[in-house]
């Protein structure tokens, strides 16, 4: 890692905030970053370029509903919270090259779960990858709650933190893990865990 490039990349407060946000979220679509930081594409690219050149951030193109999208994720080996970096190969193994609105969501979930089982991806990063794709693709399209089977707009569905399946607001619970964090679990996972 080139210290001069890292210093240059982190000399701008906007870039520091961008990197901190990516470290927290783990993976984001560039379009969602533009919305979150209220930046035009050119401004976001201007801030991402030094982070990429310093080896702190990686981008990856993926086609979602025939539109090229750019996924961004942190590559810093030593992160603020000591999480491992996300491997570009693992992200590509999960997302592939092309995602359609009518793709069976189970395919992506199963790929992510396999990477977790192999130990190449931790659970939190798998959830981040699946959630990023799920929230971004076909926002106007409809999908089905995996518990009750009702057809809902994708904006009205969340992902279970355990099984990664889409679930509507009536079929999930927020479970407190500890004083600082909570998990969103579908009723199916809640009943499996607590009986």
Structure description:
The protein is of the alpha+beta class. The protein has a domain at 3-99: Arc Repressor Mutant, subunit A. It has 8 helices and 10 strands. It has helices spanning 3-9, 13-25, 30-37, 41-53, 88-95, 105-118, 123-136, 187-194, and strands spanning 28-29, 57-64, 67-74, 98-99, 142-144, 151-153, 157-159, 166-168, 172-176, 182-186. The strands form 4 sheets. The protein has a 4-stranded mixed beta sheet with strand order 1-3-2-4. A two-stranded antiparallel ribbon has the order 5-6. The chain has a two-stranded antiparallel sheet with strand order 7-8. Helix 6 (105-118) runs antiparallel to helix 7 (123-136). The longest helix is centred in the middle third of the chain and has 14 residues, at 105-118. The chain is globular, with a radius of gyration of 17 Å. The chain starts with a helix and ends with a helix.
**How widely separated are the two ends?**
49 Å
CATH topology of the domain at 3-99: Arc Repressor Mutant, subunit A
N-to-C series of helices and strands = HHEHHEEHEHHEEEEEEH
Strand order of the largest sheet: 1-3-2-4
Question: What's the helix count?
Answer: 8
CATH superfamily of the domain at 3-99: Winged helix-like DNA-binding domain superfamily/Winged helix DNA-binding domain
CATH class of the domain at 3-99: Mainly Alpha
Strand residues, percent: 15-25%
The CATH architecture of the domain at 3-99 comes to: Orthogonal Bundle
The count of β-strands is 10
Radius of gyration: 17 Å
Low-confidence stretches: none
Classify the secondary structure makeup into a structural class: alpha+beta
Q: Please describe the biggest sheet, giving its number of strands, its sense, and whether it closes into a barrel.
A: 4 strands, mixed
């Amino acid at each position: 890692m080139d210290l001069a490039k890292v210093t240059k990349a982190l000399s701008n407060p906007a870039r520091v905030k961008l990197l901190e946000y990516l470290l927290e979220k783990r993976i984001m679509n560039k379009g969602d970053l533009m919305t979150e930081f209220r930046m035009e594409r050119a401004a976001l690219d201007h801030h991402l370029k030094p982070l990429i050149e310093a080896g702190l951030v990686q981008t990856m193109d993926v086609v979602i509903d025939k539109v090229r999208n750019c996924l961004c994720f942190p590559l810093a080996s030593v992160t603020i919270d000591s999480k491992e970096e996300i491997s570009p190969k693992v992200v590509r193994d999960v997302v592939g090259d092309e995602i359609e609105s009518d793709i069976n969501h189970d395919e992506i979930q199963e790929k992510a779960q396999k990477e977790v089982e192999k130990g190449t991806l931790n659970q939190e990063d798998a959830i981040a990858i699946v959630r990023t794709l799920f929230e971004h693709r076909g926002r106007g399209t409809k999908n089905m709650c995996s518990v009750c089977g009702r057809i809902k707009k994708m904006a009205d569905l969340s992902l279970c933190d355990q099984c990664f399946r889409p679930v509507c607001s009536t079929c999930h619970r927020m479970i407190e893990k500890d004083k600082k964090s909570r998990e969103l679990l579908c009723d199916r996972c809640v009943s499996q865990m607590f009986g």
